[in-house]
Write a structure and sequence with these properties.
This protein has two domains: 37 residues, no CATH class; 270 residues, 3-Layer(aba) Sandwich (Rossmann fold), CATH 3.40.50.10310. 38% of the residues lie in helices and 10% in strands. It has eleven helices and nine strands.
């Protein structure tokens, strides 16, 4: 039989099963619809993946903005990576963002971690800098519309900066809440076997075995749990002020398992989801000052050559700063010196620097 353009395998459309015809038409219509459909919008978009017009449409007064906070460079013993906290913050953020609609802002990878600075690679901001940085990131995003913010916080010492930052933002009519890991202690207690600890320990190591097992080297995990003489920091020097830990661990990571990690992670994720649900309906604080748009704030600072009013109250004059620097250069301190404020100054030749110490009974992450 002669084949024509209208025959399929020698069969004319008359003999072609109607089901096959309908299926072919459906496929054609679906292809056309996909070509004409607008791009899919993520349930929880990440700001860094948007254009500014897309961000403008996304950052509305009803938006809850979620900001991961985790150290990108902080020691976690010989068995975990320096980016441990950031990896945990990113994972928790992803889990939460998959479960409830939020807008995810880029992570804060530096913050207040004074307890680990004796270990190479560890970084920390001062308490005031961490507080102000957090508040300013939130404040600039709030200038585009959102009034509710949630910090996915994976630290403990960081709470000392987050609490005053949240308090300062209330004057702008902005509500900022954050994860406080200590609230999960009771829920996790039944799964924890170690005698004690809170850093690179059974809990943290278990969570990383669940989240990213390739980043954990259990062959190097050791029990390191000496009495906390001064919970403000860990020290590698026996007899020095602080909690002695040659490994940078405080606890017993050898007891970590992936199953425990799943339980710990799920507990935190569920707690964060509860926090965000409460944040959505919480009343906003009464604004006591006008919240300038980021553009206006930048214009004022550029024109005046000074920082924002909130920060200018904390700054010394240029003459005072020169005087203070001169005093520091003359001191030539050669070793650690406890000063009345509770800080410890570490001399480094012709310059000094200080670490604000935490009055506490437990090593702070």
């Amino acid at each position: 039989m002669h084949s024509s353009p209208f025959t399929i395998h020698g069969l004319t459309p008359y003999f072609m099963p109607m089901r096959a015809v309908a299926f072919a038409v459906l496929l054609a219509l679906t292809a056309v619809a996909r070509q004409n459909a607008p791009p899919a919008v993520a349930k929880s978009p990440r700001i860094e993946t948007l254009t500014w017009p897309e961000a403008e449409a996304t950052l509305t007064p009803e938006t809850v903005v979620m900001i991961p906070l985790g150290a990108a460079s902080k020691e976690h013993g010989p068995h975990l990576k320096l980016r441990n906290d950031l990896a945990l913050a990113d994972y928790l953020t992803g889990r939460v963002a998959d479960s409830t609609p939020v807008v995810v802002a880029p992570a804060l990878p530096y913050h207040f971690y004074p307890a680990f600075l004796e270990y190479p690679g560890s970084t920390s901001l001062t308490l005031a800098t961490a507080r102000d940085m957090t508040a300013e990131v939130v404040r600039t995003l709030a200038g585009h519309g959102p009034r509710r913010f949630y910090i996915v916080n994976t630290g403990i010492s960081t709470v000392r900066a987050l609490e005053p930052a949240a308090a300062a933002l209330t004057a702008d009519g902005v509500l900022m809440r954050y994860t406080n890991l200590s609230r999960f202690d009771v829920a996790m207690k039944g799964m924890i076997e170690q005698q004690g600890g809170s850093h690179a320990d059974e809990v943290e190591t278990s969570m990383m075995l669940y989240i990213d097992p390739s980043s954990v080297d259990m062959r190097k995990a050791v029990r390191d749990f000496n009495p906390s003489i001064d919970g403000a920091r860990l020290t590698r020097q026996r007899g020095a002020t602080g909690t002695y830990s040659p490994s940078g661990i405080w606890g017993d990571p050898t007891r970590a398992t992936r199953d425990k990690g799943r339980f710990f992670v799920d507990t935190i994720v569920n707690g964060i989801l509860d926090d965000i649900a409460a944040l959505r309906t919480a009343p906003l604080p009464a604004r006591s000052r006008a919240l300038a748009s980021p553009t206006e704030a930048a214009r004022v600072e550029h024109a005046s050559g000074t920082s924002s009013p909130a920060r200018s109250l904390e700054r010394c004059s240029e003459g005072d700063e020169r005087t203070i620097i001169g005093i520091g250069l003359r001191m030539q301190t050669r070793g650690p010196m406890q000063i009345p404020s509770g800080s410890v100054d570490y001399g480094r030749g012709a310059a000094t620097w200080s670490i604000p110490m935490e009055p506490s009974n437990a090593v702070r992450k």
